[in-house]
């Protein structure tokens, strides 16, 4: 597992670490997931959760741990969360410091199933995020049924936002939408200081990307204080 920080630029601190799957030689998450067959997806999803929590505990992480999960790997929320809860209890990880990021939404055909997962996780004390918002299937129609705590705005809407008026207009609309829905926002894929400052000016203070830190393999990155300015 690798961990990438998610920072609050206004508060000048790390608020989350996202756990990301990596291969033994640093291969990307996508290349690893491509090797996981459908019949192994549930086991793989469970093992990733356990590994992320164990490693975060070993590294003495104090921030919220954000774990990706694929909805189609969850057949029944209460049953599928048992190993996560047992691991959290074993290593002393507070459940209120767990956030689950919903990925692979394009493969979800049963919207009621996804809504049930989010509602069940909320009832257990977890928070949830909708990843890649604004790109492909992670779009507005999902919010008619789902109530995630956080929307992670996709890199496609953020890249070059400091010089692109159309992107700025879309991002302003997302900020208003999130306020009306009572949902928090995270800007993903920040690569330049100019993008970061533009998002702050638009009201998006929580950010993630290579500008702050690349994912660190089995380690927790620190942030150069100059990045917050």
From TrEMBL:
Transmembrane segments: none annotated. GO terms for molecular function: cyclic-guanylate-specific phosphodiesterase activity. It comes from the Bacteria. Residues 1-229 form the EAL domain. This is EAL domain-containing protein. The lineage of its organism: Bacteria, Pseudomonadati, Pseudomonadota, Gammaproteobacteria, Oceanospirillales.
